[in-house]
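Pasting two entries for a bug report.
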Amino acid sequence: MDGLVGLARSAAASVVHLESRIPTAHPSASMLGEVRLGTGVAVEPDRVLTAHYLVMGAERIHLTGVDGRERAVTRVALDHETGLALLSLAGEALPATHLGRSSPVAPGLPVFLLSCTAERQRKGASGHVSAVEPFEAFWEYGLERAIMTTAINPGLAGAPLFDDEARLIGVVSLGLTSVGRYSLAIPVELFVDNRARLEAGQPAQPRRAWIGFFPQAFDGGVLVTGVVAGGPAARAGISRGDQLLSVESRPVSSLRELYREIWRRAPGERLGLQILRDSEVRAVEVVSADRYEFFK
């Protein structure tokens, strides 16, 4: 136990507090709020990794180290596919964490996370990896390998997840409610493998078509629970309560099937969807968009 506490204290120096201010007019403001608080971790003395939705659309980011000093954020590189953001900093150097590899991570591995609860407060939680498996979320997002843990995040999202040698293996993006699966982390490989692209501020290639809706899976189907105002789905007349039946004549009964069909296409391509509304099957054509352009 003393060893784990010592590791956590050492790792805490690389953990930073984030406060993002988002303009009211930004498309994400109505969904995620105009003020977002979060956690990040220094992967270099002048680079911080965090969850992308915490800083998406930000006009101002207050980034504070455990020493209480603010560092200026000079650039934000977003990656919608991985769900990560890399922040470039100016000012006093931060202690950088040690990068690990999540590829050998397997159920049973002891882990701990460190999260901010205030600018100068850090709290931790320990547990173990409960699963490493594909994950799909309702905002047109999915991971081939997501790390599920039994550690409950005691603070803000964006928290670093460490192995039992205090090496960074993931970034905590979501809190979950399934038994034994309380925190979901994005594997650090998705940063390491895309680092050069993020440093250059380049979006993922090939670019994926984006529809701008919030589909939820239910028993044997996919239901639209909302649409992004001004997005392709809204412009095409898709609305909350529509059941998605097919994309380009290919039946879809899960988020994985739905996203696979959408992501075969590039932004700007037209997609023919079949929906069920009021017991009537309808055909809808959607002109997909580029999420990077929409949310820039």
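Entry 2 (this is the one that rendered wrong in the viewer):
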Amino acid sequence: MPQDVREESRKQLEDQMRLRREVQALEERDFQLWSIVVLIGLVLVAGIAGLLVPTVVWNIHFFRFDAHYLPQLLFGLIALVLLFNVYVIKQRLELRHTREELVLQMVYNEASERLSLVDPLTDTFNRRYMDQVIAKDLSRAERQGINLVFLMIDVNDFKSVNTRFGHLTGDRILVEVAQVLKRTFRASDIIIRFGGDEFLVMLADADEHSSEYAIERLRRQLEKWNSEKSIPGYCMSLSWGAAIYAKGSELKNVLDTADRKMYEHKATNANRIETVGKQ
């Protein structure tokens, strides 16, 4: 993983931990505030009970209760209750405002983190996703004894596409390729724009047989897209290569194998799909 990516990941983790600590501190403060409310309430109830039934609470022979002071004492207790309620309401409003700010900041950070992992053009994951997240998927697959298949996919003759149609149409074609891949693969599979016109697909819990079935689905989706003639004069053609990631494998070696197979197929036209109604 590049140094700048590791540094950014560390900062994001520190920010998340800091926000969680602040939220936890708010919850503890909220609990303390309500504890004080309950305690003061018990004290006030005991005080009022003591004023109203002095012979029961303070049954001492030298105690003399003067009822003349009862209104003043009750008024004082009522004023104390009102002041304390004002304080509690103010503290609750401050806690609520602070909590809302922290929640918004957490949501913003999570959205920013997600956007940093998504390619803005094709709305697929980007290389940063591989650096930060995919290692966790590999570890989980190894713990569960699940094989993964990595499928490297390349758009054939994409450089000539930009020359013939222009870069705007080239961008649109990349978006269309991403849509074809999304319609082809399962929701549990991960689609990554590996770079330029190359895409990487990680097939979860797959083997050689299931990857061949997925490639056949991709062939059908390509044929369907070309038959619709979405971009006049253009025939979408892809090359691909697959490699299995098993327990103990090195990701770099697996990707190199998939990349090599993709270029072998590109050279032999083994996986090129010609248009079904070529214009």
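Dev reply: Rendering is fixed now. As a check, the viewer should reflect this: Residues 3-116 form one domain.
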